[in-house]
Design goal:
The protein is α/β, with parallel strands linked by helices. The chain has twelve helices and eleven strands. The structure holds guanosine-5'-monophosphate and manganese (II) ion (MN) (2 copies).
Length: 334
């Protein structure tokens, strides 16, 4: 990773330089948390002209609506057209930045902070660590090299990012270094119980009922992927409308589906607009779901990946089934 060039890009900002922070479309905890935490750090450094944004409608999911640093957010339509420095967070490729991808050309300096193995190094300076549990780990590394001290605001953002991307410190990427970072974040006085309840354990009653309906129609296909099994379910726009829910409430659904003992691979297929679907995939190890996702136009990590696709529900699920055998890992072939 090119830390020296990244530090220089920040240090070389003119006194009134404009900084634009961008994270991926449909932002999750790591996207928003690493971006806003880093932004609050830059503010401590004295950067005054700064915006944070993401493509699409400027809607922050309810679990993240109390993050510190939200005042940095502007709608994508209002983002600086030609910033002095653009920094991208948690996006594996330019396509994850939607209409904002052109800022990488128009900005004087372009920095990419990420942790996806599939990252295309689309910045001019790329800090990409595929071993990092979250983009917030990379962001904290750069804050440290810039001499910016953690405060409670920065720490809360980075803690949300770290705890969401590690599944509350349960996933394989949860190394001693992750716990050491968590300890430094907690030492600022942030309250993990309050933060976790807000981020993981709060949802509208309508979403509870919607989850019941969507989980109730899950299908198990034990004979798929060399017998490792597939479990999947789907949610339509009509499901959301009937329960009066926003699309982002569906994000945690995959965590309930992937519990299925009889299946290595789990999917939730979510209708975004009529005939368009966003697919979340998880694996327990026999299948590398990032290979399925990349083959179908998306990306992600070995155990968590996704893509968007068009067609009928059966067509989209059929495409997943067709890719599963080709994505078997060493652990999956037998
Ligand atoms: P999730 O299922 O939580 O939305 O996403 C899991 C992982 O897959 C994330 O690391 C995310 O970066 C990646 N991912 C999800 N959807 C897409 C997509 O449409 N395109 C790409 N390139 N990656 C995706
Ligand atoms: Mn993300
Ligand atoms: Mn991430």
């Amino acid at each position: 990773a090119d830390w020296t060039a990244a530090v220089a890009a920040v240090r070389d900002l003119p006194a009134d330089g404009r900084v634009l922070l961008i994270c991926h479309v449909n932002p999750d905890g790591d996207a928003l948390g690493s971006m806003l935490g880093f932004g609050l750090g830059l503010r401590r450094l004295g950067v005054r002209r700064m915006q944070a944004t993401f493509p699409g409608p400027p809607e922050v999911p309810e679990p993240f609506q109390e993050l510190p640093g939200l005042d940095l957010l502007v709608p994508a339509t209002e983002a600086y057209p030609d910033p002095d420095l653009v920094i991208c967070f948690d996006a594996a490729s330019g396509s994850r930045l939607g209409e904002l991808v052109d800022r990488l050309e128009t900005a004087r300096a372009a920095l990419v902070l990420d942790h996806h193995a599939s990252n295309t190094h689309f910045g001019r300076i790329n800090l990409v660590d595929p071993h990092a549990a979250a983009t917030s780990v990379v962001a904290e590394g750069l804050l440290g090299r810039l001499g910016i001290e953690l405060d409670a605001g920065i720490a809360e953002c980075l803690y949300v990012a770290l705890s969401t991307d590690t599944g509350s410190f349960r996933f394989e990427a949860t190394t001693p270094a992750v716990h050491e970072l968590a300890a430094r974040l907690l030492a600022t006085g942030i309250r993990p119980g309050d933060i976790s309840r807000r981020v993981f354990d709060t949802r509208p009653f309508g979403a509870v009922r919607l989850f019941g309906e969507v989980l109730g129609r899950a299908r198990l296909e034990p004979a798929v992927a060399a017998g490792h099994g597939l479990v999947w379910t789907y949610a339509t726009q009509d499901d959301l409308a009937r329960h009066d829910q926003r699309p982002y409430v569906l994000e945690p659904l995959i965590d309930s589906v992937r519990c299925t003992a009889e299946a290595d691979v789990s999917c939730v297929v979510k209708e975004t607009t009529t005939g368009d679907w966003a697919v979340s995939m998880r694996s327990k190890g026999a299948v590398d779901v990032s290979r399925v996702a990349v083959a179908l136009g998306g990306g992600g990590h070995r155990f968590a990946a996704g893509f968007t696709g068009s067609g009928t529900l059966d067509e989209v699920v059929g495409r997943i089934r067709a890719e599963l055998d080709g994505a078997l890992t060493g652990a999956g072939r037998h």
